[in-house]
Amino acid sequence: MTVDKTQAIKQVKLIYVAPEENSNKFWCGWVMPDGNLYVEYGRVNYPPRTHVYPCRSVAAASQKLVSLVREKTRKGYQEAIVETDDPQQLDWSSFGENASQLKQKLGQIASLGEIITQHTAIRFDAIKGVFVTELGIISLHTIQKARAALRQVSLHRSNPQSHQFNHAVGEYLALIPLPVGMQLDAPTLLGSSEKINQQQTVLSKLHQGLNLIVQLRQEIMEISATSSDTVVELDRAWWVSWGLIRDAIDCQTPTSDEERSLHISWS
User: Fold this and answer.
1) Contact 135/77 with Cβ under 8 angstroms?
2) Helices of type H across the chain
3) What is the model's pLDDT at position 91?
4) Are the CB atoms for 242 and 220 separated by under 8 Å?
């Protein structure tokens, strides 16, 4: 069954990561205009299983979604800390003589994305101007929570069999998906200073990438505001959402270690 999820009236995305149980699962639900509730679920980084609940009305489907989410949260699932905006494709040719300069800066962000993808299950979507996981868009809020989780991982690394260490790893993986496979072994993933330092670098690269996205988006807006090119004006609907992340306005480079911990604490 083919479902156009972009038409969904409401959606919820949940994740459950528990290294001690070898659990690394997601669950997503979409209330569709036809009154059905469409669900995808399974293990992170694997093809999802699907199910459709025929509810006959949007109200009934919404109630079913609330009931299922309540059931999942009782089992330990939590809402995925990602954004779910779906900006339209940007046509760079609309910017005429400025296109080359803008695409060059886009290339810098893409290069960071390649480094990040080497160590995570995150990729840079150049068409939309966002870093994405299977569950949605990475934002500064995600980075902040992930860095806090990584600090807890480091704090409890000396006892890799402890609940505290496994819980911290689970919190991190719920934000920053790693290529785990079917066996989730927390000490192998984040049980060494080398692995932790690697993920600290990933978070710094993500923060740097978000800063560059903000800067490039600002240039796009300024070119639009000053351009007399009617093509840019006519094509505004195609590019105006490029790089738009709700908390991106706060994504500024910190000037001290204390500020850095506040700003880049995330997938």
Assistant:
1) no
2) 58-74, 99-119, 140-155, 163-175, 186-190, 193-226, 230-234, 236-239, 257-263
3) 63
4) yes
Q: Give me the pLDDT at residue 176, please.
A: 94
**Cβ atoms within 10 Å, residue 113:** 20
| SS3 readout for 65-128 | HHHHHHHHHHCCCEECCCECCCCCCCCHHHHHHHHHHHHHHHHHHHHHHHHHHHHCCCEEECCC
- In degrees, rounded to 5, the angle at the alpha carbon of residue 14 between the alpha carbons of residues 66 and 60 is 20
Distance CA 129, CA 245 (A): 9
> What pLDDT, on the 0 to 100 scale, is given for residue 267?
29
Structure tokens at 160: 């890799």
Closest listed residue to residue 23, CA positions, set 81, 60, 72:
72
Those residues whose C-beta lies under 8 Å from the C-beta of residue 164, and which sit 6 or more positions away, are 152, 155, 156
- Residues 191/154, Cβ–Cβ less than 8 Å: no
pLDDT at 255: 37
Question: What does the pLDDT read at residue 90?
Answer: 56
Residue 262 has a pLDDT of 32
pLDDT attached to residue 155: 96
Cβ within 8 Å of residue 70, ≥6 positions away = none
Which regions in the chain score pLDDT beneath 70?
1, 81-94, 227-239, 246-267
Structure tokens of 155?
């704090």
Instruction: Give which of 135, 201, 137, 190 is closest to 168, Cα–Cα.
Output: 190
Residue 236's pLDDT is what? 56
Q: Residue 83 has what pLDDT? A: 57
Buried b (16+ CB within 10 A) or exposed e, 80-94: bbbbeeebeebebeb
In contact, 148 and 261? CB cutoff 8 Å: no
